[in-house]
Amino acid sequence: GQNIDQPTEMTATEGAIVQINCTYQTSGFNGLFWYQQHAGEAPTFLSYNVLDGLEEKGRFSSFLSRSKGYSYLLLKELQMKDSASYLCAPRGGGSYIPTFGRGTSLIVHP
Amino acid sequence: KAGVTQTPRYLIKTRGQQVTLSCSPISGHRSVSWYQQTPGQGLQFLFEYFSETQRNKGNFPGRFSGRQFSNSRSEMNVSTLELGDSALYLCASSEEGGNEKLFFGSGTQLSVL
Question: Which residues pair with B45 in a beta bridge?
């Protein structure tokens, strides 16, 4: 199985930067996804990392360190609409099916 | 293209009953996965279907089953419902189910009384 650890909840201020960390333990690592889920809505894809390093996409960036079993999602210039749950989902064990963490609920205050 | 469509959106059942949920993937997508989402356990993988065959299965009891039709639409069935089956059931599709991102439907919220 896979152990995935991410904070349950985080709060931040509009316009600020927030980093959501995710640590995982898995054999046969094969990439890591981040998804965003607004309350009552479907999860939507944010990013995918398979190699070490930083992937930047607009206000969102995702980092991966395979040797440390660590990833983070960086959100810049926070907006109120960024209030959502952020799901870390690594793949491993020879499967391409991602295993989802319990998610980090981000609350953005004005 | 239309997104992933799940029906019904809400469902209320009683213990012991059975339920069937439906999922229509994005046109051209052949892989359909099902997930159970609860506040305590998060998103848990149920099974994945590809070209009408179950390709992967999660750690759920046999009461949970599914199938996929030739048009890639999928159904999942839960028999002998238990209170603990109350959850949001999400369906996700992708073209081939490999390294691709998943497109999720809005889910079916099942309440078992």
Answer: B35
Taking the C-alpha atoms of residue A94 and residue B69, their distance in angstroms, rounded to an integer, is: 27
Subunit contact A98:B102, Cβ cutoff 8 A: yes
B106 and A42 within 8 Å at the Cβ level: the answer is: yes
The single-letter code of the amino acid at A106 is L
Q: How do the pLDDT tens digits run along chain B, 113 residues long?
A: 789 999 999 999 999 999 999 999 999 999 999 999 998 888 999 999 999 999 999 999 999 999 999 999 999 999 999 999 999 999 999 987 666 889 999 999 999 99
Q: A42 pairs with which residues across the strands? A: none
Chain B positions contacting chain A at CB under 8 Å are: 4, 33, 35, 41-45, 48, 56, 90, 97-99, 101-107
CA A13 centroid distance within chain: 19
Per-residue tokens: A33: 């996804």
CA distance B77 to B33: 13
The side-by-side arrangement of strands in the sheet containing A84-90 is A9-13, A104-109, A84-90, A32-37, A44-49
Q: What is the least distance, in Å, from the CA of A103 to any CA of chain B?
A: 7
Backbone angles phi, psi at A9, to 5 degrees: -150, 145
